[in-house]
Amino acid sequence: MLPKEIDIREYNYALPEDRIALFPVEPRDASKLLKYEQGSVSHHVFRDIADLLPPKSLLIFNQTRVIQARLFLKKETGASIELLLLEPIEPSREVMFTMGAQNTVVWHCMVGNKKRWKEDEKIVNGGIEFSWCNREDNHVRFSWKDGRVFAQILSELGSMPIPPYIKRASVEKDKEVYQTVYAQNDGSVAAPTAGLHFTEEVLLKLGQAGIQKDFITWQVGAGTFKPVSAENALEHEMHAEKMFFTKQNVLNLKNHDGPIIPVGTTSMRSLESLYWFGAGLISKKLSEFRIPQYFPYENNCHISLIEALEAVIQYLEENKLGELQGVTSIYIVPGYKFRVCRGIITNFHQPSSTLLLLISALIGEDWKTIYQEALDRDYRFLSFGDSSILLPK
Fold first, then answer.
1. How far, in Å, CA of 321 to CA of 95, rounded?
2. Which residues are paired to 218 by β-bridges?
3. 54: which DSSP letter?
4. pLDDT tens-digit profile of 173-217?
């Protein structure tokens, strides 16, 4: 049930600047790991996670790959223009297709120092001509004639879009450390950071411990860093992001007998969105996989997870689809009833953020105890910080 108001000030905490990790630990799996289970807290090292998960768990990973989406352009006058690529417009709105494009692409961008870039002005850097396609909407055209595909251009000119709260310049090492070891599908401008701790050795140990794994794709957008500016958090507008499930993903979820635990908030929001798509199909309130931010709270249904997943499978079969593509703005806040997830593996999040609201929805007011415990024990916070397993009461 959605409350009438959520005071975002209740989800604030003091995060000292020096507790924000600027770089990850090496090796990745040497990070600290806090385990919360039914009210109790214990402390571990991430490489031991296979021994700390509930038996017969199914972990759901987001296998998106971060693109080198930040570009720094120099005008002939010496002025600097910064671009952060947000979403492709032409030749396709699908990142995976746009990365193979030649000659020209158009992207919706976040533009730094925009006032120094006039409407009819062209900027040439690295053999690429940059021009406005639509200045009002921040649509930028890239043009080139040397046969390169767009993926090569980003590899040569772009840098990793590390989060704005990490107060340092991007470095070459970020191309490796700001990417999960299982990343496959280009499309994100931010990493699914809960997965950064996993190594090939840890993934192998999961299998040996009987923990199952499956991989979906959620394209993480820059909106993930959008702060909650409204005093009443329910007035916050959630950004829409794309997600992809194969038919086999849905079958694996339906056939699993055990707890389903997402690796990160993107995986959690994907799984819960998938349930609501199935429920919406059954109730005939949805005909396409597009979940508005408050849809779960406006539809207090009693449809089981199995029923919802069976409806999704039927939808795929009727439409002769092997993959399901969706868009969601789902907003998980205190009062939300989880339909799929029985816990989460996640990092420690920013104060007064939508991600902290999600954590509170899962474990209630105990988030305050957990975060204070992490601060007292010198845990590192945010994207390159330490990890936690949260298993609610």
1. 20
2. 243
3. P
4. 999 999 999 999 888 989 999 999 999 999 999 999 999 999 999
